[in-house]
Amino acid sequence: MNRIKYLLIIILLLPQLAQSIYRVYTGNIGDRKVEIYMYAISDDDFHIICVDNETHEITYLGLPKRIDDNYYFKNYSINLKDNINSLIIKNFDFSENQTKSQNDFLIGSLNEFGDFKLKKVFEYNLAWPWDDKDKVKEKDAERIFNDTEFKNVEFLQMNSTKEFYFKVLISKERKGEITITGVNVYSKKNGKLVQTINNIKGYGFFAFNAIQIGDFDFDGNENDFLLADGEAHAANVPQTYYIYDGLQNKFIDPNLEGYTIRFDSEKKIATSTKTCGNEFIDPTSITINKMYYFNENTKKYNYLDQYCIAYDNKKFFQKKCTKKERQDCEKAVVEVGDEP
After folding, report:
1. pTM to 2 decimal places
2. Which is nearest to 158 in space by CA: 88, 210, 230, 234?
3. Cα–Cα distance between 237 and 191 in angstroms, integer?
4. What angle do CA 259, 262, 264 make, to 5 degrees?
5. What is the CA angle 247-189-154, rounded to 5?
6. In angstroms, rounded to a whole number, what is the distance separating the alpha carbons of residues 88 and 57?
7. Are 37 and 20 in contact (CB under 8 A)?
8. Band of residue 233 on the pLDDT scale cut at 50, 70, 90
9. Tens digit of each residue's pLDDT (9 = 90 or more) over 295-306
10. Contact of 50 with 37, CB cutoff 8 Å
């Protein structure tokens, strides 16, 4: 059972591949209105999260078994010790690189409520070939990638606070990647939209894991969130933070963004770390650490100081950066995952 738990955690933390099949379905299952969000790459890499209008809780279903043409999903969100086959999907088709999949409705059954039929409201069926020799599939993928466009489509997020759940707004221009253009915040009390955040810088879309929850204003409550342009624990991941203001009952911008930020709760300091260079390739790698202090009165982070460290990757020692090293790293465009 522990193996399943660890596997589930890994799956939910990994950034999703560009060739995923994305779908959204809505409708009734029993007496509940349900929204189902999917991404799938293959039979073995097929994931669902859903929310209903009664509990307003997020449920994850994944690691399905395929028997004939049916997919049997287990519920890993409620009780990992009793993950029964809770959902059966009977007519899912991948329809790789097709503008429109074969079925407009998702047909299946749920143990608790019986049969259901949900309407498809969004799809994007991009599937690049794993083998670059498959020129036919590559051409089909290029066509879908170049021709598809959409704007501000909601996509449910896995992580939520005690009071709110989130949907990112995703958009795509022709010949462009999917980007996040906003965040919608919903109340878990009644499922109503309570806030829309629009000033998003176009971060990349990572399916269910674009939003992470934590305590980023040092009040002891994990009711704040960050938006990450990559897997949140990698190096050089751009991150933007929002904190919950109880007096205004909304999330506010605390003036904190940077690369792979670390928090010191005792000193109330957040440190953004940008890395330039690679210890296996470059003779020297640079790390710029910018520190910000959280002001409880203004609920804003103020720039405090920075320190720059240069690592000699051949002699294995570190020193303070020269002015040129620091300036070059400041200007450098770094890739997510680049490490010293």
Report:
1. 0.87
2. 210
3. 31
4. 150
5. 95
6. 20
7. no
8. low
9. 999 999 999 999
10. yes
Question: Token pair for residue 249?
Answer: 């009952």
Kindly write down the DSSP assignment for every residue of 25-65, as one continuous string: EEEEETTEEEEEEEEEEETTEEEEEEEETTT---EEEEEEE
Q: What is the SS3 assignment for 105?
A: strand
Task: Summarize the confidence of residues 73-92 as an average pLDDT.
Answer: 66
User: For the chain, what's the residue count?
Assistant: 340
What DSSP assignment string belongs to 263-330? EETTTTEEEEEEEES-TTT-SEEEEEEEEEEEETTTTEEEEEEEEEEEEETTTTEEEEPPHHHHHHHH
Cα(197)–Cα(271) distance, integer angstroms: 24
Q: Nearest to residue 272, comparing CAs of 220, 308, 246, 296?
A: 308
Q: Which residues on neighbouring strands pair with residue 29, listed in sequence order?
A: 32
SS3 273: strand
By 3-state DSSP, what share of the chain in percent is helix, strand and coil, each rounded to 5? 10, 45, 40
